[in-house]
Amino acid sequence: MNYKFDEYRFDFVKHRKKYFIVSALLIIAGIVSMLTMGLNLGVDFKSGTRVQVQIGHTFKEADVKQAVEQIGLHSGSITTAGDKKDMAVIQFAEPIHKDEFAKLTKAMEDKYGKGVSLQESTVNPIISRELARSALYSVLLASVGIVLYITIRFEFRFAVSSILALLHNVFLVITLFSIFQIEVELTFIAAILTIVGYSIHDNIIIFDRIRDNLKHAKLKTVQDVENVVNHSIDQTLARSINTVLTVVICAAALYIFGGESIRHFTLALIIGLIFGAYSSIFIASQIWVS
């Protein structure tokens, strides 16, 4: 069989420096955002209490803040949530006690009527630190497992390229959550681990094709290697795009119809899937070539 690896529709490898520059700029923006604004951590990752107040109609955040302060409580932040913008999320830096929650309930009922409902979530400092530590261990353990698997299945250079691409994807998701100050909850970690799984799946498809094509290629120059990579990406491009589009459509449906409790999870998933598709095509294999 005659393999023509110089036949492909687009030279992905030739423009790899441009992709690296785009990613580098996004990473720099993320570093600046993390240093200046940080993450908007939810109650899952810092001590305190979060109260969701289902008001039932639109409201002004300033009015809710005023009602909270009138009973002697100090809220860290008040945000509007819900499909109809009829829910107030009140974040307290310190855990509130039962009597304080009772006062808050009465204040909200006096302000907005008896139809108001409140839901409380409280995390103490020890639990919040344990959750943050467990989240970090989960991501690290997944990364180590990926390195070992790809090293055994392919080679160490493929593993390094995959991990760098995964870190790229994860950090860019964190970057957007930091820039737009979207609340980071425990479900965010589940989204990150899901993103890692899907991203490595895309990388393995391309790397497997590269490995297979290398068996039939006569490599004499660097250009020959680049041709194999371009040809491999071209062969798997339609599959990669169709796969991620299918999952993004499902995640978008969850974001629209899934309710407030999983909205941040699905948003992180959608962002991560898009960056994962981008990195598997334009970053991971280009790192391997470089």
TrEMBL record:
Domain Protein export membrane protein SecD/SecF C-terminal, first and last residues per copy: 111-289
UniProt subcellular location: Cell membrane
Gene Ontology molecular function, alphabetical: protein-transporting ATPase activity
Native species: Aneurinibacillus aneurinilyticus ATCC 12856
Chain coiled-coil ranges: none
Transmembrane among keywords: yes
KW RNA-binding (keyword) present: no
Keyword annotations of the record: Cell membrane, Membrane, Protein transport, Translocation, Transmembrane, Transmembrane helix, Transport
Main location: membrane
Name of this chain's protein: Protein translocase subunit SecF
Lineage per the UniProt record: Bacteria, Bacillati, Bacillota, Bacilli, Bacillales
Transmembrane segments: 20-43, 135-152, 158-179, 186-207, 237-258, 265-289
InterPro entries membership: SecD/SecF_arch_bac, SecD/SecF_bac, SecD/SecF_CS, SecD_SecF_C, SecD_SecF_C_bact, SecF_bac
Gene Ontology BP annotations: intracellular protein transport
Membrane topology designation: Multi-pass membrane protein
Function: Part of the Sec protein translocase complex. Interacts with the SecYEG preprotein conducting channel. SecDF uses the proton motive force (PMF) to complete protein translocation after the ATP-dependent function of SecA.
Pfam families the UniProt entry points to: Sec_GG, SecD_SecF_C
PANTHER family in the cross-refs: PROTEIN TRANSLOCASE SUBUNIT SECF, PROTEIN-EXPORT MEMBRANE PROTEIN SEC
